[in-house]
Amino acid sequence: MSKIRALALVLAIIIAPGAPEGPAFAQEREAKGDLVVIVNIANPVNQLSAGELEKMFLGKRGFWEWGKPIKTIDLIEENVHEDKSARAIFSAGYLGKSLPSLKSYWIRAIFSGRGQPPLVFGKGGDVVRYISENVGAIGYIRKKDFVQEKVKRIEVITELSP
User: Fold this and answer.
1) Cα–Cα distance for residue pair 153/40, rounded to 1 Å
2) pTM of the predicted model, to two decimals?
């Protein structure tokens, strides 16, 4: 990644307003039922633990167990207030982070050379298309954008049964 592109990415993360902590953050965490985590149809994975999903989206896990690189996708919806966005809901519900803390996390990770944030798309249909064309990709969309013929929904397990 060029220095100019990295700087532009960091500035976009810093400048974009984030959702505050507090009651709104709790609501975002609860609203994750509106989202679907999806992968390419050829991906053999049918479920992930919440911890595995978090590692992937925080850049702490780079490869699927079957060897392909993991390509994470964020949905930053156009014309949706950021604190109601799919990204805010996903970050709070699955990563346990508000958008400001997620942005801070990625700024530190980028400048320390520890990782790159997920690719970003503005429409659920674009996320579906990208994932359908990239076997190692994983992302999330609103339920209304789910197209079963193109991608596969995976189950995220919050607690493992004994």
Assistant:
1) 9
2) 0.79
Helices (H), 18-93: 23-30, 50-57, 86-90
100: number of CA atoms within 13 Å, CB side? 7
Residue spans of the domains in the chain: they are 3-157
**CATH class of the domain whose range is 3-157:** alpha beta
Is 32:94 a contact under the CB 8 Å cutoff? yes
Rounded Cα distance, 110 and 139, in Å: 20
Strand partners, 65: none
What pLDDT, in 10s, does the model give residues 104-161? 999 999 999 888 999 999 999 999 999 999 999 999 999 998 888 889 999 999 865 5
User: In this structure, what are the phi and psi dihedrals at residue 31, rounded to the nearest 5 degrees?
Assistant: -80, 5
Contacts of 8 (CB under 8 A, 6+ apart): none
33 pLDDT band, cuts 50/70/90, is confident
